[in-house]
Design goal:
Number of domains: 2
Helix content: 55-70%
Strand content: under 5%
Distance between the termini: 57 Å
Order of helices and strands: HHHHHHHHHHHHHHHHHHHHH
């Protein structure tokens, strides 16, 4: 049994000639995917992010191996893991499609059946297939909920020239430019790609994937900034400022009770309770939290009924009440949305710090942990804690925003 990654791929691709015919098959697959629907066309031909959903589906995966490579992907996946330097727990660098696109790029660059320019063009097609799949996965992760066009345009306008999308103007051009990282002989990975050993290809894939992820993550930080800013603007009319003394405290209590009653009513309304913009803001404060986990907890809460829903209502009330009390004790106006970052960081500190772990706080955290575990099932301790913190902050923020969201409105 072959145990070197290059030997393994050479064996499985022994019947394929890397000529113009195979180049055409690769290019046809790539362009068909890029033009699959209006979502793909709009994204790759545009400069916005989070508006259009691009998906590299299981069917696309199967078509690539069955119709283009004519290879059993499952068999190849098992075979490549025979190389001791391909670590199965390294999801990116052990993935059979990622490895295959790198191998195909290498073979095209070395092909004696193609001229120099066509070698580069063909290798670029292989990289683009890798990048399409990687990017589609990243966008699903960072943008589980679509942005509206207005928000996406604000994000794009706010990006500086250091972002490639501002220089290249379309996502297709960004990815085409990025392909040079792999296929340009003057770039870092070219020599390593030619050697194509387990250690080298692992480094290539992790670096290529990491560069794409950093690009999307940095734009996502701007999305959070824009969403935060729009949230403040949309909430100006609900801001309490300059409240002091007994009269100010009474006004604060009246308004906080009204907001708490409002969010308790939202527990039966998925569209009202769950706002993707707020989920994204919380993710910015608790980056180790999975937005999928928080979303699952919130959705399951809406679907809960009877005595369990009554208990959840009490938990939500206690979270909001304790958050208001804590912020007031720190001389921070609980409804001053213009100081949102300060408020959320202060609350995160309260829910995390052992010094503020009073019996009341401890009891709330324990109840939320039970709620999270009930709706997520078996998860790691870190997942439970991160989701708990995210849930606590989300309930506060959704409470203080109140009914500032009109039907169908998105910040």
């Amino acid at each position: 049994m072959k145990k070197q990654i290059l030997d393994i791929f050479d064996y499985y691709f022994s019947d394929i000639v890397f000529n113009k015919e195979f180049y055409f098959k690769i290019k046809t697959f790539r362009t068909t995917w890029a033009n699959k629907n209006i979502e793909h066309i709009s994204f790759l031909g545009g400069n916005l992010i989070g508006v259009n959903r691009i998906i590299f589906s299981n069917r696309d995966f199967d078509m690539f191996f069955r119709d283009v490579c004519e290879i059993d992907s499952e068999e190849l996946q098992k075979a490549v893991l025979a190389d001791p330097n391909i670590m199965p727990n390294f999801i990116i660098s052990s993935n059979v499609l990622n490895l295959t696109t790198m191998y195909i790029a290498r073979r095209f660059l070395l092909s004696k059946h193609l001229d120099t320019q066509t070698r580069s063009d063909a290798a670029r097609e292989a990289y683009l297939i890798f990048s399409y799949r990687a990017l589609s996965s990243m966008l699903v992760h960072f943008f589980k909920y679509k942005l509206n066009n207005q928000t996406a345009l604000l994000v794009y306008e706010k990006l500086s020239r250091k972002f490639l999308i501002k220089k290249k103007e379309t996502w297709q051009e960004v990815l085409t430019y990025r392909s040079a990282d792999l296929i340009d002989p003057k770039k870092l990975h070219y020599t390593t790609l030619m050697k194509f050993n387990g250690i080298g290809v692992t480094k290539i894939l992790n670096d290529l994937h990491g560069r794409l992820k950093d690009m999307i993550k940095n734009i996502f930080l701007v999305v959070l900034e824009v969403s935060n800013s729009r949230l403040k603007v949309n909430s100006e009319s609900g801001v309490i400022s300059g409240l002091s003394g007994e009269e100010g405290l009474r006004e604060l209590l009246v308004r906080s009770d009204r907001h708490i009653n409002y969010i308790v009513r939202l527990l039966d309304d998925e569209g009202g309770l769950i706002k993707p913009e707020i989920v994204n803001i919380i993710y910015g404060i608790v980056p180790n939290m999975s937005t999928d986990n928080l979303d699952r907890v919130l959705v399951n809460i809406v679907e809960t009924s009877g005595k369990d829903k009554e208990e959840i209502g009490k938990i939500v009330t206690s979270i909001a009440t304790k958050s208001y009390q804590y912020l007031t004790s720190k001389s921070i106006s609980p409804m001053e949305v213009r100081t949102l970052d300060k408020i959320l960081l202060a609350l995160r500190g309260m829910w995390i710090s052992s010094r503020s772990n009073t019996p009341e706080v401890a009891a709330i955290k324990k109840k939320v942990d039970k709620l999270v575990i009930k709706h997520l099932g078996r998860k790691s301790k870190n997942d439970i804690i991160a989701t708990r913190i995210g849930f606590l902050l989300y309930i506060y923020l959704r409470t203080v925003i109140g009914n500032k969201f009109s039907d169908g409105e998105s910040i």
